[in-house]
Amino acid sequence: MLINGIIGYPLKNPRSIPIWKRFFKKNKIKAGMFKFEIKPSDLKSFIGKIKSNKNFKATAVTMPYKNKIYNYVDKFDNFAKNAKSINLIVKRNKKLFGYNTDVYGANESIKKIISNYKFIIIIGLGGTGSAIFNFLKNRYKNKNFLLVSKKFKVKKNVKTKVVKNLDKKILLNKSLIINCSPLGSNLKKSFISKSPIKKNLINSINKKSTIFDIIYSPQKTFLSKLLKKNKIKYLNGKLMNTVQAIRALEIAFGKK
């Protein structure tokens, strides 16, 4: 039986597990899908184990390892290479290949509405945020980007600006706002009651803006409730998570 899983810490109820299991059943693949809840101190040794295990095939990668695991992979696809971020590992010929399918899922989620916006705001430039930004700036060269991050840096560019915090002036612009931060998720208890856009700024958001939140658990976040009161369009990350998982399976097993 082929061994597959999802690496993260902590792991609640990852949607990848039932999606992968359905795929195995549909395609009659003898494979298991497991939770790899690995502590940071054990990550290096765990990677060594799956690399040497002849039955290991593939694993999804989630927080907090999308960036950290990059250093343990032998080869990368262009998305993973540009973002230094990985959400899928596949073993082939005793080597580990790293992929990033988050950008594929994100683009599928917004491709029908992105033409309505010249201004894109991305909140949080960690593994997923930086991957989405690098993809969008190369795919949609006519867009202007504003990145909200305290650490992320970019080369000087008239179409890209980095700020530490959002303010009313920024939010008054008609924008596609993408939240790639964990605020509002259930990854930690402290995140659930928080919003990536401060409550006192919600009224400043342009009514024609759309907020795309990559968080899918819980489906209704604190931010989504604030936006609903103000009648601002909100998309959560459920479609992105589903699409990226399906794409990951196509890459790993070559079947649809």
Structure report:
It is a single chain. The longest helix has 16 residues, at 238-253. The chain folds into two domains: 2-101 and 242-253, Leucine Dehydrogenase, chain A, domain 1 (Rossmann fold, 3-Layer(aba) Sandwich), CATH 3.40.50.10860; 104-239, 3-Layer(aba) Sandwich (Rossmann fold). It has 256 residues and is of the alpha/beta class. The strands form two sheets. It has a six-stranded mixed sheet, with helices on both faces. A six-stranded parallel sheet has the order 9-8-7-10-11-12, with helices on both faces. The protein has helices spanning 16-26, 43-52, 78-83, 102-110, 127-139, 168-171, 189-192, 222-229, 238-253, and strands spanning 2-8, 31-37, 56-61, 75-76, 88-92, 95-99, 119-123, 144-148, 160-163, 176-179, 210-213, 233-235.
Give the number of domains: 2
Q: Would you identify the CATH architecture of the largest domain? A: 3-Layer(aba) Sandwich
Strand order of the largest sheet: 2-1-3-5-6-4
The share of residues in helices is: 25-40%
Number of strands: 12
- The class by helix and strand makeup works out as alpha/beta
Determine the strand fraction and express it as a percent band. 15-25%
Largest sheet: 6 strands, mixed
Compute the gyration radius: what is it?
Answer: 19 Å
What string gives the helices and strands in order? Answer: EHEHEEHEEHEHEEHEHEHEH
CATH topology of the largest domain: Rossmann fold
- Residue windows where pLDDT falls under 50 for at least 5 positions: none
The CATH class of the largest domain is identified as Alpha Beta
Mean pLDDT: 93
